[in-house]
Specification:
It is a single chain. The chain has 165 residues and is α/β, with parallel strands linked by helices. The protein contains six helices and five strands, in the order βαβααβαβααβ. The chain has one domain: P-loop containing nucleotide triphosphate hydrolases (Rossmann fold), CATH 3.40.50. Helices cover 45% and strands 19% of the residues. The longest helix has 24 residues.
Length: 165
């Protein structure tokens, strides 16, 4: 086990911005665990999630179980890449509450990708069919509209990732 202070890595960005790709890169570091909301939700609730309200209900259940687990991992000295969307103030407040139960550092990775590049990634992801969830164009628009840019006063260490494609 490393003697470094563990880090909670959180990911913020609109749909198809590359959050899960970055999560996998971050999780390749020693003493780091990846927790992917999409993987857990598709396994536990995949047949129950057809609408955004379904997602919100199932995601809330998952957070109830995962929250204490994340705290335990951080307190055990492991860094955690939390591939759960930190796209709204309320989601980030939940993550802030987890951090307050630990001595861990944090990095809120904010991914900024132009709309045309995100749309192309989204279309390619749906065409490939290997993502745990297929999202309709209407859901893409709705999920994009829910996004709230993080601010410095939320108390996170912001790490901005700007990409052009």
């Amino acid at each position: 086990m490393s003697l470094k202070t563990p880090v909670l890595h959180m990911l913020c960005g609109k749909i198809a911005a590359g959050k899960s790709t970055l999560a996998a890169e971050l999780a390749s570091e020693p003493d780091t665990v990846l927790l992917s909301e999409d993987d857990w939700l598709s396994t536990l609730f995949g047949d129950q999630m057809k609408t955004i309200p379904d997602y919100l209900r199932c995601s809330a259940k998952l957070r109830q179980v995962m929250g204490p687990h994340v705290v335990h991992l951080l307190n055990a000295g492991l860094s955690v890449v939390l591939d759960f969307p930190a796209n709204r103030v309320d989601n980030r407040a939940w993550m802030r509450g987890l951090l307050e139960q630990t001595q861990a550092d944090n990095q809120l990775h904010v991914l900024n990708l132009p709309e045309d590049a995100r749309r192309a990634r989204f279309n390619a992801r749906n065409a490939q069919g290997d993502h745990p969830f297929s999202v309709t164009d209407e859901q893409y628009e709705a999920m994009s509209a829910y996004f709230q840019e993080p601010s410095e006063d939320e108390g996170f260490t912001l790490v901005h990732h700007h990409a052009t494609a």
